[in-house]
């Protein structure tokens, strides 16, 4: 489940061209109570993950060819590769991913 922006307390600010994304945590059990393996979770969404754009450095989205950088704002739901960036644990115990702005693959509308 993707968290709400006001619930995110990562305790880290990105620098350079980096952004900080709260990861959409997958449920451990199915609706029927079956424990899901990591392999079944990966098959469900391929090699991509969804998350909430929590923070971005002032330099993020300024370099390169960002045709729709105005569509990106803090609080947007974004798509990125499963192993992009570095996973960290925030002060609130939630999983976050700090990554380069170029590692985003899309923005949900």
Descriptive notes:
With 109 residues, the protein is mainly beta. The chain has a single domain (5-107), classed as 10 Kd Chaperonin, Protein Cpn10, Chain O. It contains 1 helix and 6 strands. It has one helix spanning 38-45, and strands at residues 18-23, 48-56, 77-81, 86-89, 95-100, 104-107. Strands 4-5-1-2-3-6 form a 6-stranded antiparallel beta sheet, with no helix packed on it. The longest helix is centred in the middle third of the chain and has 8 residues, at 38-45. The relative contact order is 0.30.
Question: What's this model, at a glance?
Answer:
With 109 residues, this protein is mainly beta.
The backbone outline, from C-alpha atoms, is: globular
Number of helices: 1
Strand content of the residues, in percent? Answer: 25-35%
Q: What is the H/E order?
A: EHEEEEE
The CATH topology name reads 10 Kd Chaperonin, Protein Cpn10, Chain O
Counted up, domains total 1
CATH top level is Mainly Beta
Largest sheet: 6 strands, antiparallel
Structural class by helix and strand composition: mainly beta
Helix content: under 10%
Could you state the oligomeric state of the chains shown? single chain
Mean pLDDT: 83
Neighbour order of strands in the largest sheet: 4-5-1-2-3-6
Q: Show unreliable segments.
A: none
Number of strands: 6
Q: Going by CATH, what is the homologous superfamily?
A: GroES chaperonin
Rg, Cα atoms, Å:
14 Å
